[in-house]
């Protein structure tokens, strides 16, 4: 149970492009254990950081989006979000995605937390932004392959919608877990 | 806000291998919108389903593992888990991973829930298994590139360890959120 038993880092010996995939790159990376010299090859996906927004209306509803997802090949109910552009602030990116996908905006916004979408194979982070007192201020502005429906979910219904499997995307679930942690809400 | 506005599925028109990456494949997939005929190309990672285990000791501790992760290039504190083998039952797979990584085993086990690790780019699911009254019954049995430290975290400390960022892997966070949902624990 000694925290220091495991070295903090394997050394990265080689890092080469394995495949370009538009929004991410697969890198083939060769690592060496700093103590015993073991070596191994690993595939890692390099991509920009992502942002996910917890946008809450004055009526205590969460602004969510439903869209077809090409990975799962099904409709998915999620918190709004997307890719942070190079040099873009996570809060600014979150509010941009919220507005593009739902037309909602809010003034009381801040960075809540972050997670690692997958420490094993992804290099990036996902940032969670809280936006309170949001209101619909504009029409939606979709990217060409986006087709997104806004769904307002009362906070009181979140637990049931997670339990039923209606909300299943790990990052949306993380965003909601963060809301419970932030607000100290009890889980009914 | 009409649930039926968005068609349930885009049609998959073409699906070809883009890159082999040992534990996953990148597929290049061409989809067509069923109503307006729009078409688009998307990269999707095909991989086996994963499992993550919430293993709880009689003293109300969660059996967690700390290991170096090649994606994030840092040590990561997570719930034990891994890849489900072809045809393997998720509960059996979870108990196998738990035993290999920590030497712990339990008799009171069941499937708790599942999530989509990333509906946008991953085709697979992650299953969450609950194992109660677990005890250390064996020595660890690591895969060649694994080096894993067992860490017993009291359930009462989980919220703080999430808030501090010590637990940051999205699937571990999902597992813990599920535990709160299952046990109706209040979040302090």
Please describe what this structure looks like:
Two copies of one chain form a homodimer. Chain A is built from three helices and twelve strands. By secondary structure, chain A is α+β, with helices and mostly antiparallel strands. Chain A has two domains: 7-46, no CATH class; 50-183, Nucleoside Triphosphate Pyrophosphohydrolase (Alpha-Beta Complex). A four-stranded mixed β-sheet of chain A has the order 7-4-10-9, with helices on both faces. Chain A has a three-stranded antiparallel β-sheet with strand order 1-2-3, with no helix packed on it. A three-stranded antiparallel β-sheet of chain A has the order 6-5-12. The first copy, chain A, starts with 10 loop residues before the first strand and ends in a 5-residue tail after the last helix. The mean pLDDT of chain A is 92. Chains A and B meet through strand 1, strand 2, strand 3, strand 5 and strand 6 of A and strand 1, strand 2, strand 3, strand 5 and strand 6 of B.
Tell me the greatest interface: A-B, 77 and 77 residues
The share of residues in helices of chain A is 10-25%
- The CATH superfamily label of the largest domain in chain A reads Nucleoside Triphosphate Pyrophosphohydrolase
Total number of domains of chain A: 2
Number of helices of chain A: 3
Computed over alpha carbons, the radius of gyration of chain A is 19 Å
Assign the CATH architecture of the largest domain in chain A: Alpha-Beta Complex
**Order of the strands making up the biggest sheet of chain A:** 7-4-10-9
């Amino acid at each position: 149970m000694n925290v220091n038993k495991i070295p903090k880092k394997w050394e990265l010996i080689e890092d080469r492009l394995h495949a370009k995939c538009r929004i991410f790159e697969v890198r083939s990376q060769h690592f060496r254990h700093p103590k015993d010299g073991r070596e191994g090859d690993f595939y890692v996906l390099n991509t920009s950081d992502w942002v996910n927004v917890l946008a809450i209306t004055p009526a205590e509803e969460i602004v969510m989006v439903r869209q077809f997802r090409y990975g799962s090949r099904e409709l998915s109910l999620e918190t709004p979000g997307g890719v942070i552009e190079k040099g873009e602030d996570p809060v600014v990116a979150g509010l941009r995605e919220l507005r593009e996908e739902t037309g909602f905006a809010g003034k009381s916004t801040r960075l809540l937390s972050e997670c690692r979408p997958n420490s094993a194979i992804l290099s990036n982070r996902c940032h969670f932004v809280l936006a309170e007192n949001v209101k619909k201020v504009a029409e939606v502005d979709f990217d060409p392959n986006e087709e997104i429906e806004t769904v307002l979910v009362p906070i009181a219904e979140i637990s049931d919608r997670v339990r039923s499997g209606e909300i299943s995307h790990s990052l949306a679930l993380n965003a909601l877990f963060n809301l419970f942690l932030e607000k100290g809400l009890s889980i009914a």
